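Example 3.2
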Amino acid sequence: MYVWTSSVCRWVGAGGSFAITVGGLAGEFLPAHVESWGVEVVPTASVVLMYVGLTLLVSAWWCYGRLLVGVKETAPREIIGTLCAWGIPLVLAPPLYSADVYSYIAQGAMTFEGHDVYEVGPSVLGVHDLGSAAAARVGSNWTDTPAPYGPVFLILASWVVQLTEAGTTPAVLGLRFVALGALVLIVWALRSLGGGGGALWLAALNPLLLIHVIAGVHNDGLMIGLMLSGVVLGKRGRWVLGSSLVGLAAMIKSPAVVALLFLGVMVAQAARGPVLLKIAKGLILPGLVAAAVASGTTVLAGTGFGWLDTQGVAGSIHTALSLTSDVGLGVGLLAGNSDLVKEMVQKLGLAVALVLIVGLAWRSWKGRMDPVLGLGLSLLSLVALSPAVQPWYLLWGTVALAAAKTAWRSAAGQLLTVLSAALVYETHPSGGTPAYGFVLVGVVCALGLAWMWREPWREQRHGWVCGPGSPGAAVRAKWKHRSRC
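Structure, written as tokens:
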């Protein structure tokens, strides 16, 4: 049986990232050679190479986690070194697994040229307009769709467009460097919240993050980085600055507002006076600060408050990963009114998510749960019951949960490991969602759940173990020498 060590995991994962990048570059820039049987050799070979690379990356990450779970403490520096080895090749790749970055560039150009991005979509850009090349590559579902993002991100995108003169490749690289900055924020926040090597493994080394934040250039990474940085400051008692950062995060993407409730828990726990006064301070003060930041940035950006009306834009497109949308559509078809029933089920799902979030905040306030863990579980609840779900949305709660001390070793952490490993296969390298992608997700989930049943992560007297009955000391000894995976 092949022996995996931390060094082997590092370089196998790096090889996977390199294969993804080479496959992406080949498919982007090399001409397709069509054989007599009609198969485009270069695109087909590049996609196969990217799937092989992705599987190597996922396998290396999975085995690395199995090594880490048996160790009481790990050196974060080694994890960060592995992160660099896995992430650097993806920086040079063309946009992969999503075409959203072209929407970002087009919307940045629209903001720069004075278009109302909350009323019209990228199709408003003419052939000779700034950003038209990127607009031409926006997916057909989104060409006439207003921007669902806050003014902070739109201004950031417009600055990148200005600096790069809307050249597609330079603009993509510019936004990718923004994504790298977001990754730095995430790593800093994880370390500051007490997350060790395991937290960095589940959050920063996660293939779902590498594929969709670095390779796919999604702005969710920036939202998460700012949000968790605000939580760090809140934990340190600097809740005004922390609430300001969460307000900025919400002006990237709105789900960050959930963090305000848990910042409020921290404020209430630190406040003095009667219980009702503490609760009032926690509920009101962080929200007031964030609202002031949101209003100020909106006015300074000059984009207007149209973002308040476009938060449901993503839900206008059916996503198969949304449980409430799927259930609503199915019941609606049976009832003969699919649109109405689907909308009702989606709203019911959001209402249930709100109840769960309030319940988690209450448990945090009572001291029964770490507020950071409560935040992670709340975001996961929101994603699970949201009317629109994309694979990378899982990162919202996964990164926050990983920051909560040893939560990454829990059953929830193990389940998130399985889901992360599976969901990277849902999206085609071109950004589409082929039917076989869902088949691959199902296969990986089945294998992962079987693994959870066979080797549950649990705590024993001498440490955490992966597998039935393995003594913690023996697992730690394996880490020092070698471990079979």
